[in-house]
Amino acid sequence: MGAGTEDRKVVFSILVENNSGVLSHVSGLFSRRGYNIHSFSAGVTADHRLTRMTIVCSGDEQILEQIEKQLSKLEDVLFIKKLESHESVCRELILVKVSANERTRQSIISVADIFRANVIDVTKESLIIELTGTTDKLDAFIDMLSDYQILELARTGITGLSRGAADIQDAEKLLNRTYD
Hints:
By secondary structure, the chain is of the alpha+beta class. The chain has 5 helices and 9 strands; from the N terminus they run βαββαββαββαββα.
């Protein structure tokens, strides 16, 4: 990259029509163009006709602008919003299976308590801990568990919503225009 260009991460919240193949179309756009996806989550919204995708990607301003333009050209995409940190709420879920015995179990639970995590499964050999929060919080939690043996780890990737009702009203207008 040239001087003055700096990569930054962006979180895109995308409303798409809940049609078969839409996930493939969106992910295919990234692979065809060589764009990297840091995380991708998708799920049906309160309106069964819509799916919300949250995609975290990085690049310089030109690449990020190109990603947004290319996404908006896809047939099933109804609405795209960049989730800026001060205008949105973004969270991620992590499940961590940690090796635990009588000697280490209580200290692991103490770490979980500090982070307001939930112990959701206990066996003689391990604990499974669930934590929801910002990526930084989850990374800090994993770091605090580094003294213990992490057996398995699963992260959902970021999902988020913008604050306020303006985007909802904009999306409803698009949706009503699409299905009228």
